[in-house]
Each structure stands twice: as structure tokens, then as C-alpha cells.
Amino acid sequence: MRPRAILLRRRSVLPGFGLTFGVTILYLSLIVLVPLSAVFVKTSGMEWQRFVAAVTDDRVMAAYRLSFGGSLIAAAVDGVFGLLVAWILVRYRFPGRRLLDAMVDLPFALPTAVAGIALSAIYAPNGWVGQLVAPFGIKLAFTPVGVVIAMIFIGLPFVVRTVEPVLLDIEKEVEEAASSLGADRLQTFRLVLLPTIMPALLAGFAMAFARALGEYGSIIFIAGNIPGVSEIVPLLIVVKLEQYDYLGATAIAAVMLGASFVMLLAINLLQRWRRARLFGD
């Protein structure tokens, strides 16, 4: 046996790679690929005209606009404030920092129904925040605004946890060098720090967008679920199933699944770009 083959075998961490690889592929196929492919198989049995009619109905289009538009707005807000939160957690030491750091992960830990009930209770007209703006004729809960608020809530941790490691890797000497060359704080951030942070920030933005697009539990309690006004696509799919319109639900699900694949591809490309920027691959 050649020395290189012996060296590769010694470096193997998991023995029985062939077996473990086969089990992994089988597991992913049964749990992920087969159920997802069933959506496309079910949809392929529809006539093209019926499929187009199912996914372009006025009610469905309104749900698309709210889900995609709300997710885009929420991801943009999370991008700005997620960067701010990550910056504070990385660059400053203050009392309660550990508590704030733990609170960032709260949307991960909370059951979605609990998050939805809490948000609706806070932003309802008689809630803590809702009653403050109600006298001005502003209604937050049970409107598209409430949908965006819920999307912002669930997407923030993705941006914070994606940007945080990049900020930790940036040495303060870089900022000091820029300052010594005459750059002010804004120029240092815009020309030195932001290009380094941008790949991670875009990846966090994409993940927050994808998470908000598929969210259901935390949104339906605060949305109001008015058809054509505050009805999201995941809820519409459930409504179609309750009405025994399985083909219509499957057609809408296929569109959302395609959008998810596009987002997954975008996230992978952004992460690859990020690795290339960091390690020069």
C-alpha cells in the first residue's frame, strides 16, 4: 500500500465511511427528499391552465405580496438592527450584557405559538404598546404591520449570530490604522469595516428573509388573517387543505418550495463568497 493511502487512512476520523455515508444519504432521502419531491409529483398531475389559475388567483397574489414584501422589509430591518446589536455585544462590556446576549436567542427557544400570543397581547389595541398608539389612529396588531413585526421578531437572531463571528475576527488595530491615516469614524466603518462585514450581513439577511417567508405560528395570532389584506401564504395553504382543495394547496406549496430553493442557493453562494473573502479560497 502506498504511503499516501496509509496517511489518508490514518487521518480518517469516522471509520466505515462507506456505511455512514450510505446511511446519511438514505436518511436524507426518506426525511427530506421524498416528501419534497412528492409536492412536485403531485403538482405535475395538474393541467397547466389549472396550475396557473391556482397560483395566480387574486387572493393568492395578495398573500404572495404580503409574505414576500413583508419578509423583505423585515429582513432589511433585521439587517440594520441586527448589525447594531452584534456590534454592541462584541465591542462593549456593560452590566447585563450576558442577559442581552441570551435574549437574542429567545425567538429560537420560544414555541412559535407562544411568540405569536405574546406579540398579539403587546401590540393589540389594549396591549402595552398598542394602547400608546391607538389614540393616534394607528393599529399595529391584526394588520399587515403586525405581520411585519412578527417577521422582524423571528428573523433578528439570524443576522446577529451571523455577523457576530466576523466582528470578533476584526482586529481593532485595523480601525486604529485607518484612524491614523486620517479617516473619521464614518469613513472607517464605510470603507474598512463594512466591506468585511457585508458578506456575513447579506447571508444573515437572506436567512432572515427565508425564515420570515416560511413562518406560520408566530404570525397568525397577530395577523388578523383577513383574506386579501393580512393573510400569509402558509395560512392560505392550510385554508386550502381545510377546504379539501389539495391540488390548489399543493400548487401554492410548489411555488413556495421553489422560492425556498432559490433562497437556499442564494444563502450558499453568499456563504461561499464570505469564506472566499475571509480565507482567500
Might you state the CATH topology name?
A: MetI-like fold
Q: How many β strands by DSSP? A: 0
**Main sheet overview:** none
Instruction: Give the topology string: H per helix, E per strand.
Output: HHHHHHHHHHHHHH
Mean pLDDT: 83
| Whole-angstrom Rg | 23 Å
Principal-axis shape: globular
In what range is the share of β-strand residues? under 5%
Q: How many structural domains in the coordinates?
A: 1
Structural class: mainly alpha
Oligomer status: single chain
Low-confidence stretches: none
Task: State the end-to-end distance.
Answer: 32 Å
Named CATH architecture = Orthogonal Bundle
* CATH superfamily heading: MetI-like
What is the CATH level 1 assignment? Mainly Alpha
Output the keywords.
MetI-like fold, 14 helices, mainly alpha, single chain, globular
Describe the structure concisely.
With 281 residues, the chain is mostly helical. It has helices at residues 3-11, 17-44, 48-55, 58-91, 97-104, 106-109, 112-123, 130-133, 144-169, 172-180, 185-214, 217-223, 233-242, 246-279.
